[in-house]
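Q: Entry one of two.
A:
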Amino acid sequence: MLTMRNDEKYAEDDDEDTLSIVSSSEFSPSSSLSPLRSYLRSVLLPIVQRESHYVANIQKRFRSPWWDKYFVYTSALGTHTFFIILLPALFFFGFNVEGITNHEMGFGLLMIMGGGVYSSSFIKDLVCSPRPLAPPVTRLTLGNHHLEYGFPSTHSANSVSIALFFWGYIHTFLDPSQTTIYWLSTVLLALYAFSIVGGRIYTAMHSFVDCIFGVLLGGFVWWSVTDQFGGLGLGRRLHDWVVCAASGLPYPGPNSALNSYTLIDTILSLRVFSYTLSPPLILSFVFLLIINQHPQPIDDCPCFEDAVATGAVVYGALLGSWVTTYFHLDNLVQKVGGPRPQLGSGWQILNHSSHLTSSPNTTTGETWTFLSPQPFIYTTPLFILVSVAKLVLGVGIIFIWRLLAKSVLSFLLPPIFRLVAKGVGFVRRTLGLRWLGMPNRRFYLPATEYAGPVPGLGLGFGVQGRDGGEEEEGDEGMGGQRSRPMSVPSMIDLPSTLRVSVEKQGGIGSAPYAYTSPYAALNGGSGSGLRRVNGDGDDGKDEGAGNVNDENRKEDGENGRKFRHYDADVLTKVIVYAGMAILSTEVSPLVFELLGWGVHVMPPLDAVVVQ
């Protein structure tokens, strides 16, 4: 039973481990929020409480085992893990449909995903609105999304923006009055969006207001990123600017392929943006700035990690385009006889004359003649084998990079951070600049407060205390950490396990953990520690893959701080995910050409096709 009394949640249970009063930052006024953030939160909290009962009534009326499985598993189609697999495929297989290339479509989808995830994560941490209360709802979740705030729904934003993105191309390619494929595709995309958005209500992961705002946000992101139906075309404009600057060419003016000449074009045409090194410098500055200015949440929410990771993917893709153009890496493909059709695709080059151009994204001037493929040529064993090999190799490169880079950076970055911190401290003391210091976020332990590499690598290394001695399992480390602390997983990370959990209590906006932030003084609360609240037959053990294990979080008796993140984690995530984007968009296609497998399954944009 859950009732509201003033600003505290009460959970009644006869079990001795149950707290009679559950202090929860979700429903406590917080002095750490600005007046605007506090006002927005105060507006949303009553809505969440009221709509929690509406969602519970919907579940009581419509829940069934079949619908449980349907909405839980279709929710995976709105996660970033799904698109980590889908996005590289758009760069691994070259095609050209009505002048739309795979690179353009892949880059647009990448920008939409990045814009949707970052903007929704930013708003989540800005407002700090909880998910529907459990109880009365029962959450059905795949992964650890319940650890985040609820407003707005990232799944809803992603599904709507992506459905609109593909529908825009379908509307361009197909005539609605002459084909059933158009309407069939439209219905399928609408079903996709409805399954994701409606599923967030059915699974009690979001309230109605979360999903409504998520839908509106997704539509805005789609309109801002693409040039479909008069959109701003921000994605293509940024890509054109990066490539033109790297090539030493002026930014295209009003006669560009986009709909109109906007203020964005005026800005990108300024001289400061036209230098060859402008893109990497400006992109790095802007990206680090938005990371630094990301709102500080009340609770330890993984939204920040999601924002960093998706932002790093967009940053890496733009940086990869600059590197490829500036260093003329596309010339390597031409030197080995590429670009060539994929093995088994049925296309053959009869005439191949090429010369180099100043930009890899303009027509090459090559005269190619292709033989038209035979019917069903894309189902031949050779084509299928090469396609599978490309996916396995391409995704494998991403996984290997992620594992190696994360491990190496976790060892290298902490000493670098400590060295920089000493330099910053020296400058601050020498010049009397009291405001100068190393950036640090709440819930993130600075490298100066622990010794050795980042703990928790799972490689058998313990945390070293200040005396240099390695702590054994179960001992308290610096900042209250055990030798192998369990971090809150970010939902954009590729999870080692992805399992379904039925949650009657748990996550943000729920009652299984009576947790007061280590920064409780900022929130006006008292530090009551972390205890488990059982109920509804729960045995006290959390079977969800993403739930926090309080046995892996020991409190330091002196300062009461609990950390599951480290400052080096942020830069590690930036480098890892930016590298993943570069490998997917630039390196892997180059590897396929060098191996002789080919990238294009259809003729490129400037090819001459004969039947």
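Q: Entry two of two.
A:
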Amino acid sequence: MALAMCDSSFLSLPEVNDVLLMTFSINEPDAMVKFALLTTLGSVIGCALLYAVGRKGGEAFLRRSIAHERLARVRRWYQRHGVLAVIIPSLLPPPTPFKIFVLSAGTFGISWPKFLTAVVIGRGIRYFSEGLLAVVYGPAAIRFVQDNYGMMGIGLALLIVAAAIIFFLTRRRVRSSEA
């Protein structure tokens, strides 16, 4: 849990959480849920710390790091897409720069409950999926995930986007039929 917290906040340890989670799950399949839950919890705590930094001083950091026009585009994107701007990158594998999305969520005012929900869902899906793959397929799962990490992340992100589109279209249709 501490490692996941550090990785999701200020220290970058690409793939370490994933490989450790899968290794522990292979060695103790009955404890996979516990391992995935602790990894998710640690990641969420680390993200919460970075989110808080974004709320306090993220704007100044981003202004120094990103061109003004691009920063304005990023701000509009967060205001328009909010939760999706967090949940999609939370699913993506390293080397996706997830920390910048977390920092930006705090900086651009994504509400705490929405942010927390997005991170719990995204990281939970990622870590529980990896744990399940490890239990079902054993050591071959680690090799598979390492070899196909990018495609798996893109696939998960596309599923989330498709689900969000279906949700919003259904909600819009229900609202228009009620009017």
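A: Comment on entry two: The chain has a mean pLDDT of 83. The helical segments are 2-8, 16-27, 32-65, 68-81, 84-91, 98-107, 112-137, 139-178.
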